[in-house]
Design brief:
Elements (H helix, E strand, L loop, with lengths): L1 E7 L6 E5 L11 H21 L1 H20 L27 H10 L14 E6 L6 H4 L10
Parallel strand pairs: 1-3
Antiparallel strand pairs: 1-2
């Protein structure tokens, strides 16, 4: 059995067990939490930029160009968003089929006798680390001992 690391997802605070093979320093439980945090980070950076002097000037220049393009082109219909495409079978909603990852995660949430990795579903040890593994290069280095003069 592989050793594992236990951590809380930085977004949803779900407990995650990850085996040493899959562990690359993750801090999110999956791609959905990572993508949501990334989008939030990009949005916050955009707001910071818009509130700066340089960002306000760039935004004003971009709006001037946009208004000039609108004046030049004669548009009969102003459309900001496109409508959704009609489905062929006439159904408005499609049936949700769980992805492989979702079925694995739901399988892992059920009580089992052996704990499993949340990423690859391998069996892992009952004993988990709370931190990352140290570098293998530093394990053999011992700090020099200072002796009295």
């Amino acid at each position: 059995m592989d050793d594992a690391r236990l951590f809380l997802c930085a977004r949803c605070q779900r407990q995650v067990r990850i085996c040493s093979r899959c562990d690359h320093g993750q801090q999110y439980c999956g791609a959905s939490c990572a993508a949501a945090c990334r989008a939030e980070s990009v949005r916050a950076a955009g707001q910071r930029y818009q509130s700066s002097r340089r960002g306000r000037h760039h935004h004003a220049e971009r709006q001037r160009h946009y208004r000039a393009r609108c004046r030049e082109s004669v548009q009969t219909q102003e459309v900001t968003h496109h409508g959704s495409a009609r489905s062929r079978d006439g159904a408005s909603l499609s049936r949700h089929t769980p992805l492989m990852r979702e079925t694995r995660m739901s399988m892992l949430l059920e009580p089992t006798t052996t704990p499993r990795c949340c990423y690859c579903a391998r069996a892992i040890s009952d004993f988990v680390r709370l931190g990352w593994r140290g570098s293998r290069l530093r394990r053999g280095i011992v700090a020099p001992v200072r002796r009295g003069r």
